[in-house]
Amino acid sequence: MTQERRDQLQSFLAALGLTPPSADCSLAVLDEALTHTSAGLAFNHERLEFLGDAVLRLAASEFLERHYPQLSVGQSSALRAQLVSDRWLAELGERCQIEALLRIGPTAAGDQAGRATLRAEACEAVIGALYQLWGNLEPVHRWLTPHWQRDAAQWEADPNRHNWKSALQEWSQANRQGLPQYSSREVSQIHADPQRFHCEVRLGDALLGEGRGGSRRLAEQDAARAALEQLKPARGS
Amino acid sequence: MTQERRDQLQSFLAALGLTPPSADCSLAVLDEALTHTSAGLAFNHERLEFLGDAVLRLAASEFLERHYPQLSVGQSSALRAQLVSDRWLAELGERCQIEALLRIGPTAAGDQAGRATLRAEACEAVIGALYQLWGNLEPVHRWLTPHWQRDAAQWEADPNRHNWKSALQEWSQANRQGLPQYSSREVSQIHADPQRFHCEVRLGDALLGEGRGGSRRLAEQDAARAALEQLKPARGS
């Protein structure tokens, strides 16, 4: 690694609020995380992205346990799905300007959607690299907690930003209960009526929730939200 | 907790090859993991199962990195999906006779499939509890590594036990590439011909693999296996 690249990676860590665990610590693993497959080098981010995916999920679970102990298991699943989502990772990558550090090949320049994926993959790989460098989850928490705190508070304040349907599916699959089934019907003919559609969501025979909305899509989201709110609390309280 | 329950939990840990991190360590969290929701108590396994799910995934990722560094990312995804599957967890629960320790209510006695789910949930919750008790992944590795070593070796020796289709789906979703599409056709009319069906699997426009088999199902599995074998190796080697 050149001294220039080393300095660049050091500055990146510093911007994340991190000091390497030892002064002579090799930053090769961080370089690997920030090298996209398209660069055609002998190493790339894929191995660390695979690890980072699992590290991220555990860090998000611990974050929720520390900061949101009052949530039900259903609500925790819903929030965790947001905290580890590709959309969130891509936004994180934008905030820390990860693209400036990426080694990528010319073919990967791509469109907007492609660049969001690049950022998400790179963040996940960096999360894997931090875990390997430090040997524990602390640097991941130090980096991500301020972002998660801000974003989780916003999601709570503006629940319409949630994708309740995918959150409910995440919960039902994690709990081995198959896929939720939605059935909607039009209950009003008035075009702009915000209650025009009524929706029921079921798992097997059990009715989980009901919702209303100005479109089928919104009624389904509302039913999924109602279902998640009803799920029993985490500690049986 | 009664002294009897405490002794029971201590013996369980000893059978897993684990000594509690300190002599006066509270085993309440392990008791919580082994208390099913149906027992109707003030605490239950759900919170720890949620945590254990993420701990398990990270432990399996580390196991693969340590013991199978030569695998491609596709093969690692495939093997990880097996190592954390409900089927595997239920089998693990049977091996360590976890049901004998479970507090369950009368409604949860259930059928065979229900009992397998109970065992899988309990194992996942115990994994979460061990992580909390020790504060790291070491006890999880100590418990699971011998089982994983044995089972991963068997899967390698008898690849037909793999569910290649779900492994390929796991990989394609983790890599943000959507769902694989299979198309099969009958290429022979001979009933018992093991090559009777030919199958192609694609992701978007890309042909990932081709397979043959005596039924559509087997030809699809063969195509998924071929696709996974072709995916590029983890370290670009």
Distance between the termini of chain A: 54 Å
Q: How many individual β-strands of chain A?
A: 3
CATH topology of the largest domain in chain A: Ribonuclease iii, N-terminal Endonuclease Domain, Chain A
Largest beta-sheet details of chain A = 3 strands, antiparallel
Number of helices of chain A: 9
- Structural class assignment of chain A: mainly alpha
Give the class-level CATH name of the largest domain in chain A: Mainly Alpha
Average pLDDT metric of chain A: 86
Give me the CATH architecture of the largest domain in chain A, please.
Answer: Orthogonal Bundle
Provide the fold topology.
Two copies of one chain form a homodimer.
Chain A: H1 3-15, H2 28-33, H3 46-67, H4 73-83, H5 86-95, H6 112-134, H7 138-157, H8 164-174, E1 181-186, E2 197-203, E3 206-213, H9 216-230
Antiparallel strand pairs in A: 1-2, 2-3
Helix pairs in contact in A: 3-4, 3-6, 3-7, 4-8, 5-6, 8-9
Q: How would you describe this protein?
A:
Two copies of one chain form a homodimer. Chain A is 55% helix and 9% strand. By secondary structure, chain A is mainly alpha-helical. The first copy, chain A, folds into two domains: 3-161, Ribonuclease III domain (Ribonuclease iii, N-terminal Endonuclease Domain, Chain A), CATH 1.10.1520; 164-230, 2-Layer Sandwich (Double Stranded RNA Binding Domain), CATH 3.30.160.20. The first copy, chain A, has a three-stranded antiparallel sheet, covered by helices on one side. In chain A, a hairpin with a 2-residue loop joins β2 and β3 (206-213). The longest helix of chain A is centred in the middle third of the chain and has 23 residues, at 112-134. Chain A is elongated, with a radius of gyration of 21 Å. The first copy, chain A, starts with a helix and ends in a 7-residue tail after the last helix. In chain A, 41% of the residues are buried. The A-B interface holds A 37, 41-44, 46-47, 50-51, 53-55, 57-58, 60-62, 65, 73, 76-77, 86, 117, 120-121, 136, 174, 176, 232, 234-237 and B 37, 41-44, 46-47, 50-51, 53-55, 57-58, 60-62, 65, 73, 76-77, 86, 117, 120-121, 136, 174, 176, 232, 234-237.
